[in-house]
Amino acid sequence: MLERLSWKRLALELFLCCIPALILGAVVGYLPWFFAGGSNRTSHLAFLEFITSFMVAMGRP
């Protein structure tokens, strides 16, 4: 079941996605690209969690 995304959970998910991206980017040397990829994945997952309830309400799978 979908649950509401709180600010604390969002901050934790951003932290858990972006810290490994920052470390990997610093080691490899492409810091901005890894950071952008980590935050992009997190925002995409948050959007999917937000839009799923509307899709179910409209009868789309």
Give your account of this protein's structure:
This protein is mainly α and 61 residues long. It has one domain. Helices cover 80% and strands 0% of the residues. The protein has two helices and no strands. It has helices at 7-28, 31-57. The radius of gyration is 15 Å and the shape is elongated. The two termini are 15 Å apart. 5% of the residues are buried. It is an enzyme of class 2 (transferase). The chain crosses the membrane at residues 12-36. GO terms for molecular function: protein histidine kinase activity.
Fold topology:
Layout lengths: L6 H22 L2 H27 L4
Brief synopsis:
This protein has helices at residues 7-28, 31-57. The chain is mostly helical and 61 residues long. It is elongated and about 45 Å long.
Q: Uncertain segments of ≥5 residues (pLDDT<50)?
A: none
Q: What is the overall shape?
A: elongated
The biggest sheet, with number of strands, parallel, antiparallel or mixed sense and barrel status, is:
none
Overall tally of structural domains = 1
The termini sit apart by 15 Å
In terms of structural class, how would the helical and strand content be classed? mainly alpha
Give the tally of β-strands. 0
Helix content: over 70%
Rg over C-alpha atoms, rounded to the nearest angstrom: 15 Å
Total helical elements: 2
Name the helix and strand elements from N-terminus to C-terminus, one letter apiece.
HH
Approximate strand percentage: under 5%
Overall pLDDT score: 71
Protein name: Phosphate regulon sensor protein phoR
Organism: Raoultella planticola
Transmembrane segments: 12-36
GO molecular function, one term: protein histidine kinase activity
